[in-house]
Design goal:
Layout lengths: L4 H4 L24 H12 L19 H10 L11 H17 L9 E5 L2 H22 L8 E5 L4 H9 L3 E5 L21 E7 L11 H15 L5 E4 L7 H4 L12 E7 L11 E5 L11 E5 L2 E5 L9 H37 L4 E3 L8 E6 L9 H10 L6 E3 L8 E6 L6 H19 L17
Parallel strand pairs: 2-3, 2-4, 4-5, 5-6
Antiparallel strand pairs: 1-7, 6-7, 8-9, 10-11, 11-13, 12-13
Length: about 450
């Protein structure tokens, strides 16, 4: 019996490890699987530590049982409902759970779906708006040209994509010191007969603050009484739709407001599931035009599908159901409350350092932002602090606010499940140390080439 000497060779003396792996062309010959694994494994060590990434909203920890379930189900195809009927049933369980959580009037008369993430969910919500508007306009014998969608200038980039891809005019209501979020006060200047809907954000990406959906709905009610225009709301609850039901149940932002036609969320944010899964739910069956639902024959089965994607992972849907079963209302409340407690603990400590003013404190979603106190220094800015913290392993982004507030730079922390009080103290020590180092400068730091830490 002969043995392949390359298999017996120490890992880093094998042929594949003794050369630079090809980057842009497929190799001519096979490679030992353990060698290929080691190359990819080693390259990903150059990535950051996900647990220390305080820029992302996306879940980075679930636990051993979830990891095992993920490994057992990663081959399931969500679209293949004939092959995986129980996975399909679990998907329906999940969106009906969310519909109930969001106070839909009649769960049996609602409809929803899973998506790859909340960006796809938002696009489906926007498409339903556009198609309902088109159908109503055609029925009235009116033009269907030039639809528009109204939103805050602080929306996530997925809404810019929706308007670009599906040819809808975006009408951005600028944020300002006087109106730091869309609050309904300026809507009359933007709404007309071509408006397909208004987007309200439960958890603005820049600051973590809720937009007052109830006030926006009231403004649209008054506008309808004055003009006859009946404008629906889509709530982009990417983060807040999985926070408010547990931490602020008294806030009316969801299907309790008749003007809210649809709600989307990210299962992979505060839904506490690995990426990528999102959800969208419509309050009634007729809020989603039937022509947006496709019935296809696939692998011997006939099934409805209303997502933009076709084949996609089923494992994250199963993980969402696992979290609903595992945590329940009590567990979700405990986790979200701890995240908020840590966020408020951090924001209070940062506000007491002397160099910073809080822009938000984590009282809505567990996200907060701060700015450098005016007049504190001319020698450094928040981009420099972000760079210094990155050297310690922390990713804490700095970026300008949008539009009328673009001269204001803020820094933001997203507190997710897994950022313990102990880690928070380590972070505070590093912020204090690096702030003191920067305050000790006798001349200005260079500013060439500074870039925002993220763009949404």
């Amino acid at each position: 019996m002969t043995h392949d000497p390359s298999v017996l060779a120490p890992t880093y003396t094998r042929a594949g490890e003794r050369a630079v792996a090809p980057r842009y062309t497929i190799p001519d010959v096979e490679m030992d699987p353990t060698t290929a694994y080691q190359i990819v494994h080693d390259e990903t060590m150059l990535d950051g530590n996900a647990r220390l990434n305080l820029a992302t909203f996306v879940a980075t920890w679930m636990g051993d049982e979830a990891d095992r379930l993920f490994a057992e189900t990663y081959d399931k195809n969500m679209i293949d409902k004939d092959e995986y009927p129980r996975t399909a049933a679990i998907e329906e369980n999940c969106w009906r759970i969310l519909a109930s959580l969001w106070n839909v009037p009649d769960v049996k008369n609602s409809i929803g779906t899973s998506t790859i993430g909340s960006s796809e969910a938002c696009m489906l919500g926007g498409l339903a708006f556009k198609r309902r508007w088109q159908l109503a306009r055609r029925a009235a014998g009116k033009s269907t040209e030039k639809p528009n969608l109204i939103m805050s200038s602080a929306v996530q980039v997925c809404w810019e994509k929706f308007c670009n891809y599906f040819e809808v005019e975006p009408r951005y209501v600028p944020v300002s010191d006087e109106h730091p979020a869309l609050d309904g006060s300026q809507l009359e200047q933007y709404v007309d007969e071509n408006t397909i809907g208004v987007v309200a954000i439960m958890g603005v990406t820049y600051t973590g603050k809720y937009e007052p959906v109830q006030e926006i709905a009231a403004a649209l009610d008054a506008l309808q009484e004055k003009t006859g225009l009946d404008i629906p709301i889509h709530v982009d609850g990417a983060s807040g739709a999985m926070i408010a039901p547990f931490l602020q149940p008294e806030i009316e932002w969801d299907f309790r407001l008749p003007r809210v036609h649809s709600i989307s969320t990210s299962g992979h944010k505060y839904g506490l599931v690995y990426p990528g899964v999102g959800w969208v739910v419509w309050r009634t069956l007729d809020a989603l035009p039937d022509e947006l639902i496709f019935r296809v024959s696939y692998l011997g089965g006939d099934m409805p599908t209303l997502a933009l994607n076709f084949s996609r992972p089923g494992s994250q849907v199963l993980l969402q159901y696992y979290q609903f079963l595992r945590l329940g209302r009590e567990g979700y409340t405990a986790i979200q409350q701890e995240c908020q407690d840590v966020a408020k603990y951090l924001s209070k400590a940062i506000s007491e350092m002397g160099a910073f003013d809080l822009w938000s404190d984590g009282s809505d979603i567990p996200v907060f932002a701060w700015r450098l106190k005016p007049g504190h220094t001319e020698n450094w800015n928040l981009y420099h602090l972000s760079d210094r913290l990155r050297m310690k392993g922390w990713l804490v982004p700095a970026y300008p606010m949008p539009d009328d507030m673009s001269d204001l730079t803020v820094q933001r922390i997203v507190v997710r499940n897994g950022l313990s009080r102990d880690l928070a103290d380590e972070l505070l020590d590093d912020i204090r140390t690096e702030t003191a180092w920067l305050d000790g400068l006798s001349s200005p730091m260079p500013t060439e080439g500074q870039q925002p830490g993220f763009h949404h």
